[in-house]
Specification:
This protein has helices at 3-25, 55-67, 71-84, 89-104, 108-121, 128-140, 151-166, 173-200, 204-217, 224-238, 241-254, 259-270, 282-287. The protein is elongated. 66% of the residues lie in helices and 0% in strands. The protein has 298 residues and is an all-alpha fold.
Length: 298
């Protein structure tokens, strides 16, 4: 007999003793236990006895539901392991499978929650890298189009970078690097979109701040060429010629065949100047030590 059942039995004996004792003291109206029932005397309480289901059976049931693509049902099965067998190996296995089932079912927020909990409870286990990957992928698969808020893109990027930092040799690192490039490109694209809007409104300072973010944080993306050209345009409009020349010079050095460099060069020559790099400029410093930018894919 389990401790819980034994305790339940002892508790029942104690309750009966209290009731019988009360009937012995108060004679009137206490002849039977049924007289204490204020409800319909025809109704009797029948306790429901739920048999313990072995953890392995619950786990296998979850796997079977995954095979049937019943991901939500599978996630519930795996989640029940933590409730019925807390702090056990089955609970740990169930938690990572709950994250996986939710991810496969498109329940990304639920997958993130389960993955985060796994990382909090089991950070040093072999499946921790997979939990991190599931969390990052859940954010990644929610990346919206470039016209919308990019919070999910930012979270995806940070989670993917953390995966590379904490588990650099894991089997998920290669795919994480590819997804980092996509997430970075998305964030750079959003900065460019806002920067172009400011540029059109002649809010040159606001535009420069956006283009600067692209150049400083997202140099490996395909948007960096346009960002440098837009910096040339914004700085020329503000009369900050030296920075405009530097932006064009860095663009030409790293992307000599880019149509954006041709636009920047033409813009400068119309203003009577040519590209010339100032090594003290933030633009020059941002690209210092970055090898062969022009040969990277974007």
């Amino acid at each position: 007999m389990s401790f819980a059942k034994a305790y339940s039995g002892l508790r029942g004996v104690a309750v009966r003793a209290l009731v019988i004792g009360a009937c012995g003291v108060v004679v009137a109206g206490c002849d039977t236990l049924s007289s204490l029932n204020p409800f319909d005397k025809s109704e009797t309480y029948k306790p429901e006895i739920v048999a313990d289901v072995p953890a392995e059976q619950i786990y296998n049931d979850g796997l079977a539901r995954i095979q049937k693509k019943d991901y939500e049902g599978a996630a519930k099965k795996f989640g029940s392991l933590d409730k019925q067998y807390p702090y056990s190996e089955w609970s740990r296995k169930g938690l990572i499978m709950e994250a996986y089932a939710n991810y496969e079912g498109g329940l990304y927020e639920e997958s993130i929650t389960a993955a985060k909990r796994y990382l909090q409870l089991h950070p040093s286990t072999p499946d921790a890298a997979y939990a991190q990957y599931l969390m990052a992928s859940s954010y990644y698969d929610q990346i919206p189009d470039i016209t919308r808020d990019q919070e999910k893109s930012e979270r995806a990027l940070l989670s993917l970078q953390e995966l590379i930092q904490r588990y650099p040799t894991s089997e998920y690192a290669a795919d994480a690097k590819k997804k980092i490039q996509v997430a970075s490109d998305q964030l750079a694209g959003k900065e460019l979109e806002v920067g172009r809007f400011y540029l059109q409104k002649r809010n040159y300072s606001g535009a420069i701040n956006r283009f600067r973010t692209v150049v400083s944080r997202y140099q490996t993306t395909r948007h960096v060429e346009e960002a440098l050209q837009r910096l040339t345009e914004a700085y020329m409009a503000m009369g900050i010629v030296a920075e405009a020349q530097t932006a064009a010079a860095v663009l030409g050095h790293n992307f000599p065949d880019s149509p954006w460099y041709k636009d920047a060069y033409n813009l400068l020559t119309k203003g009577g100047v040519e590209p010339r790099e100032d090594s003290g400029s933030w633009i020059s410093k941002a690209f210092r030590g970055v090898p062969q930018v022009s040969q990277r894919t974007g």
